[in-house]
Specification:
Number of domains of chain B: 3
Strand content of chain A: 5-15%
Family (chain B): Belongs to the activator 1 small subunits family.
Largest sheet of chain B: 7 strands, mixed
Radius of gyration of chain B: 24 Å
CATH superfamily of the largest domain in chain B: P-loop containing nucleotide triphosphate hydrolases
Strand order of the largest sheet of chain B: 2-3-4-5-6-1-7
Structural class of chain B: alpha/beta
Strand content of chain B: 5-15%
GO biological process, one term (chain B): DNA strand elongation involved in DNA replication
Distance between the termini of chain B: 61 Å
Largest interface: A-B, 80 and 90 residues
Subcellular location (chain B): Nucleus
CATH topology of the largest domain in chain A: Rossmann fold
Shape of chain A: flat
Shape of chain B: globular
Helix content of chain B: 40-55%
Strand order of the largest sheet of chain A: 2-3-4-1-5
Number of strands of chain B: 7
Domain AAA+ ATPase (chain B): 39-195
Protein name (chain B): Replication factor C subunit 3
Number of domains of chain A: 5
Number of strands of chain A: 7
Oligomer: heterodimer
Number of helices of chain B: 14
């Protein structure tokens, strides 16, 4: 490729290698730490790492991850509702008996609801041989040719190479039988589906799945972890005929309580009732996080057993970290634009929204959020001077945080500030200046930022214009800026009056018809006119 | 109308060779000398639009390679970048390639490299017989290339200097990086003078058999802002509209110019958030029609300046400059255009209420 690329490759891979083995060591430790039996791989959460570290440091005290230690051994212990378990069992049995059933099952639900455990236990019960795919941990920094991937193209290539691995994995699992136990039916389990990725990656993922489901004999289960609020899964239509879905709900509180009490009694530990309640409350139906929190709480204390004296002074109530809620985008915009005010002592109304906190919980990039607020803020102001002050800050926020110039030309970006700070400055500016105009009872709807579509249609128009220019001046080169500004407006005028345009459109139509192109792609609506030329063309259309 | 074959005057009377160029004769002589010498350097044509950069590039190509350079074909080339393919239209003859890499925006670096590599690696078949042993790559709007692409260009330029010459075209050199500038011979094409424009218009009028008064020719030249292309186009537009010319013939302006004028009217009529909302939709309209935001800002400022008192003019220009600079830094021009109008509205409203008291 480029000289620079080769050059960059060396130092970066140098930097990267040293911490790779380290990571892997931590990983294996988690895998084998229970009686040498290989456990399911956990995503290396903070808690698991600390647990491992704790274990290393004080070998005398046995600290093991409770989420692994107390994993259900029987299906009856599983926290999933019984009817869902039965549904899954049905589906699996159908495949065992070679009855017609859909090839792929999509199990989805919030994290920590026992999806994986349920599948594992059932597979054991029905004697399936599991073939499991998890995201490869060793991050692919290189593509197949060994080129280093720059910051702009990296995500794309990175996922592509993973896709390749994924496809290979699926191919192998559908082509070969398990060597150790050839008589057992193989069940392919895919965890961590690329839900949050770009549309392109998602599309390819489903393509791979569809290909698999058409060709393979072995059943497959997809496990997808969804957000709490979100219930439905986006998937393309073409896979639905092969796909069955099974939605797992949040764990209900009574069940979670029972689960945690069981663990505590096995461990012969206890926690104060209010802490226990807090843990259950803050877990929001996530058993794994509840167990982790419980264990962390106990690790933080001196070990004590049931019957030992309870410490006199109680710990402060809110010890559990609050789960971060991802705000809905409309909600987030409303928090600033519809900001509620409370009266402070001095008779001033101060906004109640904590912008910095809001920034942390934004569902989207701060910069994109800025576009959203910008799209709607005009309707919330009554005074032009106020407006101009706010607009000034919006302008500053946009200018100093954007990563590339309008024309792709980049000015010196060395002094760039993080966009979240500028965005919160702009939001605060809105709330500061817009004091008098209370938007009581004003019902405003927020819209998607127009500027996002504006860019796309500009590109489209430019393409149309190029097509158009090409038609009457096939030998010349059209540059977007110049043609749009200088030539086209006059040209359209001259040609319209000369009636050349009509012939021209007709000519190009004939030409394209000969070439077998679709009529809709004609330069039918000329991009440069403001209604005027279109009328000519409309007449033309009627004649046809 | 009799000679009408669909081409416009501006195309029909475009000089095709260096000999036919009658404006900037000094420059033409220089170019002629360069073309006859064996060693043509890389060239960087710059100057405002409508000055004749492209015409000169074409004339240079012609005097380098002869008439065969005019046999061009337009192709839409697909270039593969990672998994994405982008399409770019390329004009090429057997001796040269023309491309506007800024069309593809973010991926311009790859496009520049791919195209130059491709053309530079294939030596023309008739290398022995042809006058020149190199091909030419013409790149338009170099000032809109990303820095990344410009640096890539620099390296590629050095690498393939034996087989390939570059002709770069841009409006202003301020956005072209220094190393690139120093590797090219800069050729400045200034705007023609009013006198040169009127004489060109007169010579076209003579060939077309149109009676053009000196007064009208002057007015067209004035209004074009010394942009020759615009002058010829508006001359033809005026002729099509009404001929023989009336003594007070109205010279039409481009649609978007009228549009901006109308916006300026709307801004000075009412200063309110609702009005700003309307103006915002107008801005979007312009941007969607590919009018560069710099030009919108400039024209709007000019229109607004004509509508305010002298004491306000300083503020208006100052804020226009302020937001123009912001626009260059940022990536979403609508923010800054809108902020400028908001500022103007606020200033103008204060000024008006000051008058009432």
């Amino acid at each position: 490729m480029d000289d620079d690329d080769d050059f960059l490759d060396v130092p970066l891979s140098f930097v990267k290698t040293p911490d790779r083995p380290k990571k892997r060591r931590a990983e294996t430790e988690v895998q084998t730490n229970r009686n040498g039996k290989v456990q399911r791989k956990k995503p290396a959460t903070l808690s698991s790492i600390t647990a491992v570290r704790d274990k290393k440091q004080k070998k005398s005290t046995e600290v093991d991850l409770w989420t692994l230690k107390h994993e259900p051994r029987e299906i009856s212990q599983c926290v999933v509702q019984p009817d869902k378990i039965n549904e899954l069992r049905d589906w699996m049995q159908k495949h065992l008996r070679r009855e017609p059933a859909r090839r792929v099952l999509l199990v989805h639900g919030p994290s920590g609801t026992g999806k994986t455990v349920m599948i594992k236990l059932l597979a054991k019960e029905l004697n399936f041989s599991l073939s499991e795919w998890t995201e490869p941990v060793n991050v692919e920094w290189k593509n197949a040719r060994g080129d280093y991937l720059g910051s702009d193209g990296s995500a794309q290539m990175y996922s592509v190479s993973r896709q390749k691995q994924f496809r290979e994995f699926l191919y192998q699992s559908r082509a070969y039988v398990d060597l150790c136990s050839p008589d057992r039916t193989r069940l392919v389990v895919v965890r961590e589906c690329p839900e949050g990725m770009t549309t392109e990656v998602r599309r390819r993922f489903w393509e791979i799945i569809e290909e698999y489901s058409r060709k393979a004999a072995n059943p497959m289960i997809l496990i997808m972890t969804t957000e709490n609020e979100k219930k439905e899964i986006r998937m393309p239509d073409h896979v639905t005929p092969y796909l069955q879905t099974l939605a797992i709900n949040q764990v209900i509180k009574t069940k979670m309580k029972k689960c945690l009490t069981d663990i505590l009694s096995t461990e012969s530990m206890s926690v104060p009732d209010d802490v226990f309640e807090d843990i259950i409350q803050s877990a929001e139906g996530d058993v794994r996080s509840a167990i982790n929190n419980l264990q962390m709480y106990i690790i933080g204390k001196p070990l004590r057993t049931v019957g030992a004296k309870k410490p006199k002074q109680k710990k402060s109530k809110k010890e559990e970290p609050e789960k971060t809620h991802n705000l809905n985008i409309f909600h987030a915009v409303g928090k600033v634009l519809h900001n509620k005010r409370i009266e402070d002592g001095g008779g001033n109304n101060i906004p109640r929204t904590n912008v910095e906190k809001l920034m942390e919980n934004l569902p989207i990039d701060p910069q994109l959020y800025l576009y959203w607020v910008h799209q709607s803020y005009l309707s919330f102001c009554d005074d032009v001077t106020v407006l101009s002050n706010i607009a000034e800050d919006f302008s500053a926020a946009e200018a100093f945080t954007s990563t590339s110039g309008y024309h792709g030309f980049e000015p010196d970006r060395s002094g760039n500030t993080p966009s979240s700070i500028w965005t919160s400055a702009a939001c605060r500016s809105f709330m500061l200046h817009n004091v008098d105009t209370q938007v009581k009872g004003r019902m405003m709807t927020f819209h998607r930022p127009e500027l996002l579509t504006c860019r796309a249609s500009a590109v489209q128009n430019r393409r149309k214009m190029m097509d158009y220019v090409e038609n009457w001046r096939p030998s010349d080169y059209a540059s977007a800026g110049g043609e749009m500004v200088d030539s086209l407006p006059y040209r359209s005028r001259v040609e319209r009056r000369n009636n050349v345009l009509k012939n021209l459109v007709q000519m190009s139509r004939n030409r394209r018809r000969e070439e077998g192109k679709i009529l809709e792609q004609l330069p039918g609506q000329l991009p440069f006119s403001w209604e005027k030329v279109n009328s000519v063309l409309d007449e033309d259309d009627i004649e046809e | 109308m009799s000679k009408n074959d669909g081409t416009l005057w501006v195309d029909r009377y475009r000089p095709t060779s260096l000999e036919k160029l009658d404006i900037h004769t000094d420059l033409t002589n220089q170019l002629k000398k360069m073309c006859t010498s064996d060693n043509l350097p890389h060239l960087l044509f710059y100057g405002p639009s409508g000055a004749g950069k492209k015409t000169r590039v074409k004339a240079v190509l012609r005097s380098l390679f002869g008439a065969s350079v005019e046999k061009v074909k337009v192709e839409h080339k697909a270039i593969k970048i990672n998994t994405k393919t982008i399409e770019i239209s390329i004009v090429s003859s057997s001796h040269h390639v023309e491309v506007n890499p800024s069309d593809v925006e973010f991926q311009d670096r790859v496009v520049v490299q791919e195209i130059i590599k491709e053309i530079a690696q294939s030596v023309p078949l008739d290398a022995g017989t042809a006058q020149k042993s190199f091909k030419v790559v013409v790149l338009h709007e170099v000032d809109k290339l990303s820095k990344d692409a410009q640096h890539a260009l620099r390296r590629t330029m050095e690498k393939y200097v034996a087989t390939c010459r570059l002709i770069l075209v841009c409006n202003s050199t301020s956005k072209v990086i220094d190393p690139l500038r120093s590797r090219c011979l800069p050729v400045r094409v200034p705007l023609p003078t009013i006198k040169e424009i009127t004489s060109t218009l007169q010579s076209i009028a003579k060939k077309e058999g149109v009676n053009l008064s000196t007064d009208l020719a002057n007015r067209i030249a004035e209004q074009s802002g010394r942009n020759l292309r615009k002058a010829i186009l508006s001359f033809e537009a005026a002729k099509v509209k009404q001929y023989p010319f009336a003594p007070n013939q109205v010279i039409e302006r481009a649609d978007w110019e009228d549009f901006i004028k109308q916006m300026a009217d709307e801004i000075s009529q009412e200063q309110s958030p609702q009005r700003l909302q309307l103006i915002r939709s107008r801005f979007y309209e312009l941007l969607v029609h590919c009018i560069p935001p710099e030009i919108i800002m400039k024209n709007l400022t000019m229109e607004l300046l004509g509508r305010v008192d002298t004491e306000l003019k300083y503020d208006v220009v100052k804020w226009a400059a302020h937001y123009e600079q912001r626009m260059q830094t940022g990536s979403k021009p609508i923010f800054h255009l809108e902020a400028f109008v908001a500022k103007f509205m606020s200033l103008y409203k204060q000024f008006l209420s000051g008058l009432l008291e």
